[in-house]
Specification:
Layout (H helix, E strand, L loop, with lengths): L11 H11 L1 H9 L8 H18 L8 H19 L8 H21 L5 H8 L3 H10 L29 H15 L4 H12 L4 H8 L3 H21 L1
């Protein structure tokens, strides 16, 4: 490892290059910590090396730590920013990205502490967010991964690409609409009202709760139960 107190004839540029060359192995080691998270290893190494160069440019013995320690911290920071920004397949505002990350961390903490799946309100309390913001953040999290059009569809032997450019399904959709209507008739009047508010009027769960005098959690549970009923009926018909 090179120290900045080496021969005075060594320029700052040469010193930076030597620090980088001597710690390339460290960059590979740091990058390997993030293997298996959906990113190519070569890309992770490149990000770590960028962090290494940045560390070499900024390092000074006055920091009071070894260069390897300073460089490791810098490389980890670069990798975390890479996963926070570059991995989002659908671009969303930074504020929503940060809200999702805060929500994800809160879910992990609450699950460990409660030994069960936490409610939206419990997650919100832990993250300093409202239950509605938590629900929105979890929805935003879906933008982390993009599905290939060649990937198989859940429960089917076809892929998304198989549905592109297919013949008109108008007749089949008409039958399906009748089946959906029959399934909805199985629900209570209040459950049907909640479905209309959510999917026809595009109201949020919080707005629905205020409108019908229920809690947001009750609305969420009734929506989930109603959708499960519809799916079950349609699967049998």
């Amino acid at each position: 490892m090179i120290e900045t107190s080496l021969a005075p004839e060594v320029t700052a540029h040469q010193l930076r290059d030597r620090l980088v060359e001597d710690n390339i192995g460290l960059a590979h080691a740091v990058a390997s910590r993030y293997r298996g998270r959906g990113e190519a290893m070569d890309d992770l190494v490149q990000v770590a090396l960028e962090g290494l160069v940045r560390a070499a440019e900024r390092y000074s013995p006055e920091h009071g730590v070894k260069f390897s320690t300073f460089a490791t911290s810098t490389m980890v920071g670069h990798l975390k920013h890479h996963f926070r920004d570059a991995r989002w397949r659908v671009r969303v505002p930074r504020s929503l990205q940060e809200r999702y990350l805060a929500t994800r961390d809160a879910v992990e903490r609450c699950t460990e502490e409660l030994q069960r799946s936490p409610t939206l309100q419990e997650i919100g309390d832990a993250a300093g967010l409202s239950a509605e913001q938590v629900a929105e953040a979890l929805e935003v999290g879906r933008a982390l991964e993009a599905q290939s059009i060649d990937a198989p569809r859940r429960g089917e032997d076809t892929s998304l690409v198989d549905t592109l450019g297919t013949p008109d399904r108008g007749y089949a959709d008409t039958d399906r609409s009748a089946q959906v209507g029959a399934a909805i008739a199985l629900l209570s009047e209040e459950d049907r009202t909640i479905l209309r508010m959510r999917f026809e009027q595009e109201m949020t769960q919080s707005q629905i709760a205020d409108a019908i005098g229920r809690s947001q959690m009750q609305v969420s549970r009734r929506l989930s139960r109603s959708l499960a009923t519809l799916r079950s009926y349609l699967a049998q018909h």
